[in-house]
Each structure stands twice: as structure tokens, then as C-alpha cells.
Amino acid sequence: MVQDEGEEKETGKLLSVVVSVYNEEQALQDFYRETSQVLQALSWDYELIFVNDGSRDGSLSILQELSRQDSQVRVINFSRNFGHEAAMIAGLDYSRGDGIVCMDADLQHPPECLSRIVRCFEEGYQVISMVRTKNEDAGLIKNLTSSAFYWLINAISDVHFEPNASDFFAIDQAVAQVLRTSYREKVRFLRGYVQNVGFRKTTLSYEARPRVAGESKYSLKKLFAFSVNTILCFSNMPLKLGIYAGMFSAFLGIAVMVYTLFTRAGAPSGYATIVFLICFMFAMLFVVVGIIGEYIAILFTELKDRPVYIVADTCNIDHGKACSRIDSNASRPGNQM
Q1: What is the DSSP string of 255-306?
Q2: Secondary element (H or E) of residue 111
């Protein structure tokens, strides 16, 4: 059953569900059917916002058809692939709800959790982090690297991150407005920002389902690059590595000097010792230079100030209007790109 657009539910509250879509044609119908059933049973009204992140399969055609059948389905179509985080940011920019939920289209984020999220909103919580307790699809390596990543970022950052927090989260309109106006970095970690903004927050646990179809879009290489960017965004500790490396090298040099004085006068007799020290110090130097280069690359990306995303066209965004093509810069009025 599709609810009439003008019909309001008893609470007068609106829930916006933002869904990032990239080559998910096999999963979209199942996701829409199951999620719509859950949303219709809630006491809040809802809008279902799909952000097509440059899919190369038939995802866009399916989304356009769903938007024609159901006026509560909104579609934002990117001009190209900008990435999962850019898709979630676009969904936040276009959301009108009192509460906003971000989730994936592969049904690994269980739609039945939406009722628990709404209860948290009704209890006054403004930030709801969904913590994954189990993910069999990820495999042993990804689970271990995920745990190691959260341990490392919590060890070197001033911000505390919930271990195994995912891109499945919920925020209210006040928090969304903060993210729209003040957290517009080009290199970003959105789930980290959500945990960093403060406000009244809570966590809910869930077990990730098996993917209903398709494969994960995150390879180990992409996850590694993503992890490096996250560490650089939330910690200055890597920049201090040069100080620690210098202190360690100085200590090592003093130790060699003392060894030389107490064994025999003159330079060390061992050629290997000299080569080792030179190689070690140059290695430390290049590591520090590389870290500085990564920070400079992030600064360069920010200085270019290119848009986070570009929208080619939308469906049902302007108060239920049919699909329309919009300006290529595609920023909502009042939102900073």
C-alpha cells in the first residue's frame, strides 16, 4: 500500500531514509519492498531517498520506475560516480525529515531496525550510531582489519569512535544542519563526523545480514586508502613521527658512540654497522617526508574546492514532481558545496 502524499500520520513527524545505490539492480526491488513495509507500519510519515551514485547497470531505470509508482520515493541521480560518502552527503542535503537514517541498499542493514531508531528519536536522542556485532559476509581478514583500524584510530586520535560503527546511522534535523554547513571536507569520514559532533547520542547493535545480491564495492585496497585518509583527517600523530624518529636515531647514535669509546679508540670497525645506521636514518626521513606529503595532498584537495557531488537529475524531490533535470552544480539552496 502506498500512502497518499498529502496524508500525514498521527505524530506529524517525517522520517527520511537515505539509501546509497551503486550497481544494485539485483537488490533494489527486494530492498524497496521490505523497507516500505517497515516504514508503513511506523507512526511517522516517511520519504525514501535513493541516491544513484553513477551506477552502470540498470539501477537508475528501476529507481525511476519506483518513483513513478510511489510518490514517497525520491531519486537523486549523480552525473558520475562520486563515492559512497558523497552519496550519503547528498541524501542529507536533500532530506526534509525530522529524523534522517542512512543505510545501504543491499539489505545488510536490516530495515526492521528502523522502528528501534524511531523510538530513540522519540526518546530525545539526536545521534544514533548502529554498531555491527556480526558480519559473516565480511570474512576473517576484513573483520580483523576493521578491529585493528578502530583500535589504531582510537589510540592516536582525540576523538573516540565506537568500534564496528557502520555507515548505518541516524541523526535528527539539527545535527544534519551542522553537517550540511560545517563538515564539507572533500576528504572525509562521515560516520566519524556523526560521532564527533556531540549532541545527545546513543548506540544500537545489529547483526549484518548476508547481501541479498551482488558483491561488496569495497576492496581491501580501497579500504586501506580509506583508512589512511581517515587517520590523517582525525589525527596529527603521524606528523609527530619525525620527532620520535629523530629522538630514537639520536639515542642510537649515542649508543654507537659509547660502544666505540669503550671498545677501542677511533671509528667503529664494522662496515655493516655504518651502513645499517645510514639506511635506518634515511628510511625514517623518507617515511616522515611521505607522511607530510599525504597531509599536503589533503590540503591541496581542500584548496581546489571542487564540489562534493554533481546532480544530473532528480525524481519527486520538489514536492512530488516528476523526474526533472537540474543545474549541473546542483546544490540545494542554502547548502554549501
Answers
A1: HHHHHHHHH-SSS-S-HHHHHHHHHHHHHHHHHHHHHHHHHHHHHHHHHHT-
A2: none
> CA-to-CA distance for 97 and 276, rounded, in angstroms?
62
Residue 73 one-letter amino acid: V
- For the chain, give the mean pLDDT: 77
- Kindly state the cell numbers that stand for 119: 523510538
Maximum Cα–Cα distance across the chain: 93
**Is pTM beyond 0.90 here?**
no
Residue 323 amino acid letter = C
d(C-alpha 30, C-alpha 211), whole Å: 11
Q: How remote is the C-alpha of 18 from its chain's centroid? A: 13
User: What distance in Å separates the CA atoms of residue 321 and residue 290, rounded to the nearest whole number?
Assistant: 50
Q: 128-139: per-residue pLDDT in tens? A: 988 887 656 555
25-63 CB burial, b ≥16 within 10 A, e <16: bbbbeebbeebbebbeebebbbbbbbbbbbbeeebbebb
pLDDT by residue (tens digit) across 84-141? 888 989 999 999 999 999 998 888 899 999 999 999 999 999 999 888 876 565 556 6
Q: How many CA atoms lie within 13 A of 171 on its CB side?
A: 28
Q: Where are the alpha helices (DSSP H) in the chain?
A: 28-40, 59-69, 84-94, 113-122, 139-156, 173-182, 190-196, 220-234, 241-263, 271-304
Distance in angstroms (rounded) separating the CA atoms of residues 257 and 267: 9
User: Residue 167 and residue 126: Cα distance in Å, rounded?
Assistant: 16
φ/ψ (deg, to 5) at 131: -100, 125
**Residue 325 phi, psi (nearest 5):** -90, 140
